[in-house]
Each structure stands twice: as C-alpha cells, then as structure tokens.
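Minutes, structural biology subgroup

Action item carried over from last meeting: produce the structure token record for Aldehyde dehydrogenase (Didymodactylos carnosus). EB confirmed the sequence was re-checked against the source entry. Recorded below for completeness.
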Amino acid sequence: MSSGAMTAVESIPLLLTGLRTTFNSGKTKSLKWRKQQLERLLKLFDEQKHLFADAAKEDFHRPEQETLLYDCGLIRAECVYALNNIDDWVKDEKKSDSLVYAIMEKYVHSEPYGVSLIIGPWNYPFLLLFAPLVGSIAAGNCSVLKPSELAPKCAQLVFDVVPRYLDNDCIKTVLGGVDQTQALLKGDIDYIFYTGATTTGKIIMHAAAEKMIPVTLECGGKSPVYIADDANIEVTGKRIAWGKCINSGQTCVAPDYLLCSKATEQRLIPEIIKAWKEFYTENPLQSESYAHIVNDRHFKRVENLIDKSKVVYGGNSEEKHNYISPTIMTNVTADDKVMQEEIFGPLLPIINVRDENEAIRFINERSKPLALYVFTGNKKLAKKIIDETSSGSVCVNDVVLQIGPSALPFGGVGPSGLGSYHGKYSFDTFSHKRSVAFSPTFADGLVSMRNPPYTKATTKRMELIGKPYRNWFHIPRVFKTFWFWAFISLTSLDPKMDSGMSINNHFHQQPQQQNRNLTPTIAQLIDRKQLKIENFSNLELVYIFDQLLSSFHMWLDGHSLALTVFTCLYLHEPDMIKDNVLRTMTIAYLKLIDYIRERIILKAGIYEEEDFSGTLIYNFKFYQETVKEQQSINDIKKCEDDLAKYYRKLRHLSTTVDISQDMLYTQQLTIRMKFLRHLYQICLKFNCVNEIGEQTPLNGEEIAKLLKQTTECLQLIQPTVLIKDNDEQEENNLTTAINIQKLDTNSSSMIASEEESNLSTTILSISPSSIVDLKYTFDPYYNYRQLPPAFNRFIRCLIPSTIVYKTYNELCEHIKKLLEMTDKKTLQLSYEYFIEYSTYYKPTIFIRSLLLLSYLPSAQGIPLPGRKIFGQFIFSDYIKLEMKSFILPPILTLKHIQIDQTTFDIVENFFQRSAVLFSNLFYSLCNNRARTREKLSNLLEECSVLQDESEKIDNWLQKFLLDIFEQQTPNNSQVMMMMEKTSYFFNFMLHWTLCIMEYYIYLGFELDLYSKRELYDLYFYLAQIILFAHITIYTRADYLLTNTETFFQQLNNTSMTAGKKQQKSPVTNRFIRQLVDNNPQMTSDLLNMPSSTISSSDVGSISTPVNTDNQKKSKRKQQTTTNGTAPSTATNGGHNNNTNSSSSNRPSHYEKELNLLHGHFSMCTALHRCLKALEVDNRLIFKKKNDMSSDLTQSPYFLKDEVRYRHRFMPFSNLCAPRYMKYHDFKDIQQLCDGDHNIHDLYQDSVTHFQQAKVYFETYLNKITLKHSSTKTPLNRTFTIGFTSVKDVESYIKIAKTNVIVVRLLAAGHKRGETIDFDFNTNSHYPMLKL
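Output recorded by EB:
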C-alpha cells in the first residue's frame, strides 16, 4: 500500500472527536439504528462477497471458497444471530437477592462504552475485523476499524466499502501501519479489541493500562492436538489435514503440533498425507484450493522452522510465490526450533508421548494455548484431559470447529488472550454492565433502623433481617421454571410420556418387595423360574419368532433397539438358552441387526435415527467376533434339517396318533427359519467384499433367486394371532382343517402338491393359555433404566404379524425393484430412477442404504466421490459420458485432436469437482424426503461454484478449439461460429442446476411446506425463471446436436491434416483414450457418436448455412421473463424455431423432455395468471379473527412478505444462472407481467395456457403409450422423466381439463361473490380449482 493511500496521522484526533460527538448525541443507542446497521452489514457481505474473495486471493493466493465460507459466511451468521436476539440482549436483567434487599427493584443495565477501536489481523482480514464490529454495533458503540497493512488489497477494500454501506458518522476506517495505530491508541477511545500476535498484544495492553480502559486481546499460541490410540484414524487424519492447511496454516486456532504414541503416529501419517493429496493434489503449488504465505518475511520465518532431517512428507518451498508445501516432521523434541513459537504455517510436527498423562504434563508445562484438540472414542478420557488442562477452547474429535457456533464464546486465556466474543458474548464484551437499584420510600420505617443513634435493639433487629442463610436444600434452576412444571403436567396426562410411573408400577408387582424398584437380571428371572430357557414347544417358538420379527420390523421402521428388538430378554443373553433352535434364532437376529446397522446403514452414511447415528449407547452383545456370518447361516440351516427330521418322524406317527397340530407348528417353524436364512443371505449379497476390502458389484441374479425363495416362504407362512381361551375349540377346528404341507424326506424344503391350499391366506390361532410360560419373554420396561433422560419413550405395541408378513412381502418387492437400477446406464436415467423409487416406494432407511451402496459400492478409505458406479465405472467418466450425450462438446467427441497438458488438467479438474456434486446428489436422494430437500439446497452452493468454473473452461476451450478448426476445416466457418458462441460446460451445469431447483420446489409441494397464500409467487418463479430457462437449455442442446452431429462424425472418420492426403488415424484425444482405458467394456459407445433418434440422412449437409442470428434471438428471448412470456417453443408447441426451414421437420432429440417442460411451464403460467385474476376479482379472501370478537376482517390474500420470499428462494441466491431475483425486482416483474391486464384477459390467458398444458401432456402420454404398445410391454405408470411420472401426467391432464371449465365459469361471472378453494388431492404439484 502506498503512503498516499494511508490515513494521515494528523487527521486521526479529528476523526475520533467526530465519533465522540456522534456518540454523545445518542444516535447509536437507538435500537432501530443498531438493527439498521446490522442489516446493512449483512447486505454488504451478501452483495460484495466476491470482491472480498478477490482481494484475499490477490493478497496471498487465498482460495475464493475459503473467504466466502470462513470470512463472509461466518460474518453473515453473526449478523443474523445478533438480529434474531438483540431485542432480548438490550433488556434490563432483573436480579433477586436476600430478604434484606427484597423490597428493592434491582437490575443490570447494558450500556455502550462509547468509541471502540477494533484492530484486525491479516490472516482472516474480514472475519476478525467485522465479527467484533457486530458486537460493537449491537452494544451501541461508535467504532474505528483498523485493518492490517500486511493485506493491502483487503484493507483498501474495507476502506472503500464501509462508507457505502454503514453509517459513516459512527463507523470509520483507518488505513496505515505502526504510526496510525499508535495515534489511535493515544486518542480518545473507550475500548480496544485487538487480534494478532502476543508481542503486539502486550503493547496494546500497556497502552490500555495507561488510559485505564478495558481491552480484549485475541492472540493465539501453540494449539496442541492429542490423539489417543483408540481414535478413528481415518477421520482424525482427514480432519487434522483440513484444519492444518486451511489458509495454509495461517489460522490462530490451527493445530500447531500433535501428541500421540509412536504406533498411532505410524497409522496417522498415511491418512494425513492421503487427505492432503485428495485436497490439494500431488502438487499443491498448482492447486487453486491452497493458500500461500502472506509475505516474504513470514515465508522466511516459516521456512526457517523446517528441519529437513525430520521431514517425512513435504518440506518443499518456492520463494517466488511464498509457497510452502504441507509438511510433516517426526521425532520432534520440545527443544526444536519449530516448538519455540507459534508456527502459523503448514508445518505439522509430531511429538511422541506414552499416554494421556504424559500429554497432559507436556501441555501444562507450556503457555496456555488458544485451543486444545483431543481425538478419542473414550468420552471419559476426553473429559480427563479437559479437566486437567487449561486453554481458550476445546474441540473433541475435530479441529477449528469450536469457533463457528455463535452461541459459544471464543477467546484465549493467559498469553493466548484476554476476554471473549461471538454472539451474546460480543454484545457483553462491548457493553458496560451497570448496576441499578430502586429503593422504595414506603419502606422508610424499616430502612430507618440503620440510622444513628445505634442501640442494642435496633442492632439486633438489623442483624436478624440481614443475616445470610445457606441454601442447604438446593433446588436446581430447572425445577423453578414454568416449562418444567408444564412438562410435569403433560406427563401426568399422557401415559406414553409417564415412563417413570409405569416403570415403578411394573416393578412393584415383583414378588421380592425389598427389591421391587430394581430391574431383575436375566439370571434372576431364570432362577425364579420366570424365564423359560429349555423344553420349548414348536408353538412357543413360532410365537417368539413372530414377536421378534415384528420388533425387528419396528426397528427397521426407525424405532429404537432398546424399545423394540431388545425387549425380548433372550437377545440379552443367548448363551443361557439351552434350546438349540431358540439360541440359533436369537443369535441370527443379533447378527442380522448388527450387519444391517454396521455394514449397510452406517456404511452408507445415512444417519437419521438414534440407533443409526454412530456408536450404540447400549451394551448389547452382537457376537461380532465369536460368531461369523456364514457360521450363523449354517446353524440356521442345521436347525431346518433337524426340524425336517422331526417332521418326518411325526408324519410316521400320524397314522396311529392325531398329532396334526404338532406337525403344523413344526412345519411353520421350519418355514420361518428358512425365511430368516434367506433374508440374512440377501443382506449379505448386497455387501460382498473382495480381499482388499472393496465392495464387489451387485450380483442381481443371485439376489433375484434368493428373493424368489423368500417370497415362496412368505406365501407358506401362517401368521400367528392370539385368540381368547373360550375360542379354543374354533381354533382347533380351523387348524385341523388346514391341508398340511409335506416335507421332502431328503431335505428341509417344502414341496406343495397342486391340490393344497394357499397357506398365506390362513392364520395360525394361538390361545394365551398355550404360551403362559412366555409371560416374561418380552418386557417393554426392561431397557428403560439404560436410556438417557431425554430419550423418546413409548409403551411397546407390536404390529400384528398378519401385517408384518405383508410388509416383508413389500420389502422383497422393493428389493426386486432396486435391482432394476443396474439397467440405468446414464446419470440422467439414474437420477430419475432414484426420484421414482423414493416417490412411489417410500423406502425405509434400510432400503435407501441398500440403494446407495448398490449404486456407489463402498471401498476402504475412499470417499463418496471417489467410488465407482456399480463398482465398475469411475464417477467422473460417467459425468463425461453424460455431458457427451447431452450436448456433444467437441472436447469429448472429436477423436483426433491433440490436447495439451494444461487443457487436460483444467478440464479433468472440473470433472473431478463435478463428481463431488453428483455423488452428493445421489446421496441426498437416498435420505428421507424432508432431508433430501434440505440437502438439495446445500448442493446449489456447489452448483454455483461449478457454474463459475464452467464459464472459465468454456472461454479457454473456445480459443483452443477454434485454433484447431481453423487449421483443419477452414470451409466450415458457419459451424465454427456457432461453436464459438456455445458454452458447452456452462449449459451442462445449468441443466443439472435447474433439475435440482425444480425438484427442490416440487418437493416442497409434496411435503406440504407451502401456504396457499404463497402459490402466486411460487408458480410465477417456477414458470418465468426456472422452467423458462430449462426449456431454453434443452432447445439449445437439441439445436447443437442437430447441427454439429454430422460435422463431428465426418471429422472422426477422417483425420484432417494440412497439405496431406486424408487418412485414417488412431485416437489422439486424451479424454476419449482415458475413457476407453478405464471402461473397455464400453469402447464402441465411447468412440461412436451418442445414440440419436435422428438418422444421418435426416440431418442434411453440414455445408448448409446455419442462421447465426438465431443465437442472438435466443438470448433476447431468454430475457423476456420481464414481460411474462414463454420462449417461442413454449407458446406454439415447437422446439426448433431457431433453425432454418430445411430442418423444420426434424424430430427432436429431447421431444419427451420438452413436452413435459412445456406442459409444466403452461400449467404454472396458467395458475399464476388465474390466481392474479382471482385476487383482482375478489374471489380469494383471507379471513382472520380479531382477538376476542367474532368479526372477520379482510386482508390481501397473497402474501407480500420479503422475509417469506427470501426464505423460499434463498437457496438460489448464489447461483450464476438463473440469477436470483431480489424481492423488489421480482415484484416489479410480476406487475409488468400480470398487473397491466384486466380480469377478462387474465382469465382468458389462463384458459389458453391450461389448454396448452393439456395438449403437451397428452402428446407426451400418447407417445409413451404408443411406444409400449408397439413393444407389447406393460406401461409402468411410475416411470419418471425429470421429476414427473406417467401417473403425474395423467393427473395433470385431469386438473387442466377441470380448471379450464372452472376458469371459463369464473370469467362468465358464475357465482360471483363466492370464494375459490384449492384442492391438491388429485396431485400435490398443482391444485384443482373448486367453487
């Protein structure tokens, strides 16, 4: 920064005087002013965030995303938190005290100090300057900002933008170095907030002491990390790698050094290195995600700390760019140079300690750090380290994360800092807490006892009144609150919540009155002969199996293990069971539960319920080591064989004795055990791994075979039903009338004769008297004592087995449908399949986990984006193929072009980044629908980043490809001009962004999240911004495919070289070669053009002139959202108006997609026009009741609420395209589109668009139906394109027809004065209008 840009030292006293004058005027004490400034600060970091990112990148090569997330994002969070809570913060805090002061009114009043000085550092030049400013503004102070001179671009930007957004009379910025800072410290200020080095902090504190003013210091220090031997090394390595190298280690709370055992070190280092390579590639110098050291001085300081003899990774540096690579140093001692000061760079020394005690001693022998990090799976060990050390903050099993929550204070202790801030703590830091007491005059008779002359009597009375008393019976604060007693009242009314009373009543009934409040153990129940462990009848075993299966189903449905499966006491101690079948059954259930939870649900990473979110809080045994999966399956098979032998023995005796009941129960138990074995085997097949730990591709044939066998078992099972004892005779008549299935004498499988009846329609009746010995088998209260206090409790009520077996039939159907996924060979087809599956099959978390693991099988240590699709295809390759088929980019299509290394790296990096987006997209679709919508909103942020990158790539590739085409095909100037104006990568990313946006909004309709009073804004936004853009993208892609396919085909058939005869050449395109090498089974598809509905003869000659003016027309049409009209393709039903007459009859590559999008566009346009007409026509009246009267007052029906608008569409705010429209702009466009029309025109326009929507949807439906009729295949009504199924289209047609009739009646004045209602029962996306 030049001296001319610095603030003159002589002007600083005058600047401070102006701030003092403003503060004394009381302007900043106004709550309205404080909120206004916080809103403006929020707006500053909303609108100018990219300027901040550019400035930081220019100063020290800081990645844009780090500035957006860790500076701008956290500042916005602080602003919002303050705005949400400032009304409570400024209120006076009333206080209570002892009896002698009870008559006084006492409170604490928060008042601003006056003029605060905030001195920021260079490493986070915006966060650490503006986050304290939030607290200063909220407290009502005037403020002086002093950004660091070491980040000159950032400081200049602060100086430029602050006066434009914030009150310049109250908030000033001073630029400069030491001279300016000293002038500020000597000036008239009331508070100093400093963030920076400890040495400078001492100077600041000395200056504050001379002026006797308060100060907050945030200084830093060496933040240690202790890694226990039981830590999850993979997660630990990745998190330490991230925390150490964000901002290239120039973070005050970055991990400074590691403490761990030698064994842990050897396991940890490879994980850290792997994470760094994943984050920053093999060469971080070329990575756009890796920051550099801020200046030469700091570069040399950090470089000097590296001991080359102890470096095991990294250690590279380049002075020209102030670059130091991520570095690990081992065998470090406390005397090494790197341990003498805070590193503040990407160096990671590791010091070996024997255990946590040595680590604690090492930490305590040094200055108190700003942060302390502990990685362990043992909460007690973490608590011990926390209790026996001191630091500014602590984070367990992560790093840096503790500074994020606004509800937590952030600050140092000792040399690492003084004071804290964030959220309410920022407000308190910049506020003086002023004690206020009001003494009433009416109590002067009591107060006057203090007055002289003093007597023994008055002294004794005063001592008695003022005597303090200990609170020996301390009542916790929670018991004094209203909400506690409200909760107690509710629990007394709701038996489901009154768990404590239920438990006591349950155990009061136990025979041993002296132990009535203690839960008996399994051994005690067995000793009392209350729990049977041997000599079970087959009837009892069948009953236990059905009860267990019902509990298992409830667990899969999302309930807790403790309140479902583990209510069966046998599962707690299977080893105590002497009956072989029951012991095998219980162990199999335990193994199946453990396998589903550990190897399927947790492996998929879909955490929704308490039992699926990490380590279990119970001490249940799952026999993970003692019994292997195959052994358990073999044990079940052995039980089947034993039961088959017993059945054959009974059949032998049946000629002399009536034992049909026993035969029936034996047969049913055998079928159930076989069903359990098949179910277990199906789960195992979905998670087969090879010798290196990689999940193998799905074997659909084997799973289908097992599913068929499982379904056959379910058809033979008779569900158990308890009946009353007086109906026992009817039960006998029922069961003896059943034709008993015969068991093959050579195996345990059942052979049903043709004349035998279907057992699935028959129930197995059981009387309570026949299972009286199983009274204590299932105890719903047994696990209550183990549950945490806040755990959701309910009385166990099992689903009847008749329903349970039907649900398992549905489960088999879901898995069978899941196997169809392997036929989806493109990302688009897979995406639509996932949507169809989640919409129409409502899968449980178990099935959704199977879906994700089948599509993206897990591999040891490989994150989601690195997995292979179906275990065979690299994700980034699939994206390339998807892009090639969608828009035919030359870089992925032309076989004979030479691609240089720089171009290859740029494009390949884009596809690698895209793999993160798309893998997270499929992961999101495997969550429940509410969580899916939440995750889709997060994905749009990544879409924004990729849109930026895609634009840059398109610009790069246009220059690169035009040079090639000019040399090879000089006569095809028209085609080259078209490609020059085409953004292939951007259009591809925009297409997927719009897909996500559409599904996000329509999911909101399906989840019933929108008020009917928001419908106008929603349908308008959908039609004029989202669907309009998507139609344009599809039309453009179709146009490109039509006009370039043959041209590219000719180039691929012959290599065009200047001055030489045309000849066949090998493939030189590195991307195509890479695809072929990675996917040899798809070679022919990769080398050929994408499959098309158009033959080459239909396309015409490539030398036909292309109307390039149509590109300009298309761009103009894209801007016509301002007048509410659709692109020409949406109004006349065509899609190729952008082409010349010679191609007007060509069929579209995207005919089905365009028909659906046009239909949606017309439906949304019809609805928003109709809704506007209804509002103008007073057909929609929002009525609300006044407080205590029955009178009804009218208000506008459709909400005009900026906050609600921002809430609905804020996830779209960061997108490059379609641009997020600010609320006032949006309202202006609505007015321009619908506001200038009369009611009749609006009704007529609505009818026209409803009719158009009907035509589009019928056209789509007819083509789909015709296609299935020609192939003689049944029509799958759940078949989905985009987010729209055939079933949806049928309902859309019905809605459009009905609405046409209703709108025509309304236009004719039918039932004028009556209001209109919206019926979403036909379809959740669009309402049917009802009078």
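Discussion: The longest strand covers residues 105-112.
Next step: EB to file the record with the rest of the batch.
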